[in-house]
Amino acid sequence: MTVILTESLSKRFPRVTALDRLTVDIAPGVTGLVGANGAGKSTLIKILLGLAPATEGTAHVLGMDVTTHGAAIRERVGYMPEHDCLPPDVSATEFVVHMARMSGLPPTAARERTADTLRHVGLYEERYRPIGGYSTGMKQRVKLAQALVHDPELVFLDEPTNGLDPVGRDDMLGLIRRVHTDFGISVLVTSHLLGELERTCDHVVVIDGGTLLRSSATGEFTRATTSLVVEVTDTDEHPDGTAALHTALAAAGATVTRDAPGAAPATSAGHLLHIEAGASGGADPHDLVRDTVAALGLGLVRMEPRRHHLAEVFHTPATATESGPGTEPPTGTAAGPGPAIPAPAPHPTPKGGAPDAR
Ligand SMILES: Nc1ncnc2c1ncn2[C@@H]1O[C@H](COP(=O)(O)OP(=O)(O)OP(=O)(O)O)[C@@H](O)[C@H]1O
């Protein structure tokens, strides 16, 4: 089953190719659409809603052609735009009731659905206050509520975590997950932060310069690169236990690094060893570590699998070119041959709203 299907979809502006022969097939569930700023995410959403015409190619949403069924698609799809689009002088309740009425709900149903939806997104007493006084987090919740109020089958959420602090981001990601688990609504959520989508999405589509880099289940991005993290104590015999273990494991044929491969320096603890799974000559790396630690007489503080983050997968040239099952190769690229997408910004920058006041 497919909720979104595009075939060789392109959008060319006079100076920029925003989408370049994009072919994707998205199933029900929560799907992340990842790409750096300018990758073409918002353009794709506008085409899928029937709000902007494609230059070439086809797109279907819930089985409907976007060029001929835009209005019918918008009846069954919710849309949370990226930019601040809320009127400051009305309350969340007034605004969401208005949007529900615009979607065709009768007055009583619109009021009831509004109350339920605002409660679901976590807005309570403050829903009667003017939106102008809300924090960015509260405004994002109102935008999410208006996308859900007409009970759609699918929602497009464009950068819903933009401008939120880490706690606000986690709350929003949890809400997005529940939109699917509690109501069965499929979600297409965009972000320029790869890491935040791996916890939220079943499937991730990565685009760059309007072309497809990769489309696969979230687990496939991370599973292939699992490594073990090991931490040991020092002893009188081995004052640097980590170094001793490193030497012994390497001598046994394991691929060992002292810092997290590809990790930012801030996350690299010099006393952690990373052993690549499957790189220890066929032996189970758990057994190898256990036996080696015991032979050296060290104390084992921890031994745990470490799942690489999506960002690392894309910033490690060796893994970025691997094709897992279900992976589609990049099509002709306007952004050059490099497989890695540009580094995501360290902080999401609110483009339309004020920084979170909380
Ligand atoms: N109406 C337009 N006219 C000309 N160029 C446009 C227009 N809309 C988008 N673009 C360009 O198309 C490219 C893709 O833009 P788009 O907004 O889809 O990217 P995005 O991935 O959503 O990034 P962002 O998160 O920054 O909005 C960009 O280079 C942008 O400048």
UniProtKB/TrEMBL annotation:
Pro residues: compositionally biased ranges: 339-349
Region (Disordered): 316-358
Classification via Gene3D superfamilies: P-loop containing nucleotide triphosphate hydrolases
Skewed-composition ranges (Low complexity): 319-338
InterPro entries: AAA+_ATPase (IPR003593), ABC_transporter-like_ATP-bd (IPR003439), P-loop_NTPase (IPR027417)
Pfam families on file: ABC_tran
Molecular-function GO terms, alphabetical: ATP binding
Entry keywords, A to Z: ATP-binding, Nucleotide-binding, Transport
Domain ABC transporter per the UniProt entry, residue ranges: 4-234
Classification via PANTHER family: ABC TRANSPORTER, ATP-BINDING PROTEIN
Family: Belongs to the ABC transporter superfamily.
UniProt name for this protein: ABC transporter ATP-binding protein
Species per Swiss-Prot/TrEMBL record: Streptomyces ramulosus
Taxonomy of the source species: Bacteria, Bacillati, Actinomycetota, Actinomycetes, Kitasatosporales
